[in-house]
Amino acid sequence: MKNLDSKVNIIPVIAKADTVSKTELQKFKIKLMSELVSNGVQIYQFPTDDDTIAKVNAAMNGQLPFAVVGSMDEVKVGNKMVKARQYPWGVVQVENENHCDFVKLREMLICTNMEDLREQTHTRHYELYRRCKLEEMGFTDVGPENKPVSVQETYEAKRHEFHGERQRKEEEMKQMFVQRVKEKEAILKEAERELQAKFEHLKRLHQEERMKLEEKRRLLEEEIIAFSKKKATSEIFHSQSFLATGSNLRKDKDRKNSNFL
């Protein structure tokens, strides 16, 4: 809550107020307020500078924190249905001021002090937030020598500083981009050299394989030619042998015939 009191309007509320007796509830309210004060938690105080609502708001400030009871169930009380919590010992009505402070809280927030809450949120919390953010960005009301500083001058200085920082980062990004392009080109060139070497190796193997096949083809053709020559020689020899055998047979036959005569 200490971290929240500078960012939002804090209104302390005690929930489930029907779980304790009125005496215990009053003691708990006093203890809670004393702990808030001892811890330096700034809670929202209803304004008392307007005479029309000063008395009511002063009375409500004295009743903080509000003890409320919540329920979405409707219970029949008398001749009407009201939002309440049903217990074996009785009914606790949400909108009964004798049972809880829900009506007071609603009236203070919505009807009486809505505009003041908006104004506090804008003039205090938002302005504090805006001031902190501007200080984080380097915008201050005073300079190094505690002299008033124009917002326009601070803006121009910051704009110039930001412009220089942006140019520096752009230059760094350009250099980084060029470096990465060079590295990528080197990788691609190395890959190209490897592919070229692999291609030359495969080409050389192909040439060697082709030369081997050509040599085998040449040898095979020589063997075919030699075989053809041998075959032709064999056929000539065979025909000559056949002719010689036929001639000898005719001579023998003629010799036999002459002897017979």
Structural overview:
- This protein is mainly alpha-helical and 261 residues long.
- It folds into two domains: 13-137, P-loop containing nucleotide triphosphate hydrolases (Rossmann fold); 144-236.
- Helices cover 65% and strands 8% of the residues.
- The strands form two sheets. The chain has a three-stranded antiparallel beta sheet, with no helix packed on it. A two-stranded parallel sheet has the order 1-2.
- Strand 3 and strand 4 (80-87) form a beta hairpin.
- The radius of gyration is 57 Å and the shape is elongated.
- It starts with 12 loop residues before the first strand and ends with a helix.
Summarize the structure.
The chain is mainly alpha-helical. It has helices spanning 22-38, 54-61, 102-112, 114-136, 151-260; strands spanning 13-14, 66-67, 74-77, 80-87, 90-93.
Descriptive terms for the model:
261 residues, two-stranded parallel sheet, single chain, elongated, 3-stranded antiparallel beta sheet, 5 helices, 5 strands, Rossmann fold, mainly alpha
Topology:
Blueprint: E1 13-14, H1 22-38, H2 54-61, E2 66-67, E3 74-77, E4 80-87, E5 90-93, H3 102-112, H4 114-136, H5 151-260
Parallel strand pairs: 1-2
Antiparallel strand pairs: 3-4, 4-5
**Major beta-sheet overview:** 3 strands, antiparallel
User: Major sheet: order of its strands?
Assistant: 3-4-5
Helix content: 55-70%
Q: What structural class is derived from the secondary structure elements?
A: mainly alpha
Number of extended strands: 5
Strand residue content = 5-15%
Q: So what's the overall shape? A: elongated
Count the helices. How many? 5
For the record, the CATH architecture of the largest domain stands as 3-Layer(aba) Sandwich
Question: For the CA atoms, what is the radius of gyration?
Answer: 57 Å
Corresponding CATH superfamily of the largest domain: P-loop containing nucleotide triphosphate hydrolases
The name of the CATH topology of the largest domain is Rossmann fold
- CATH class categorisation of the largest domain: Alpha Beta
Unreliably modeled segments: none
What do the pLDDT scores average to? 84
Number of domains: 2
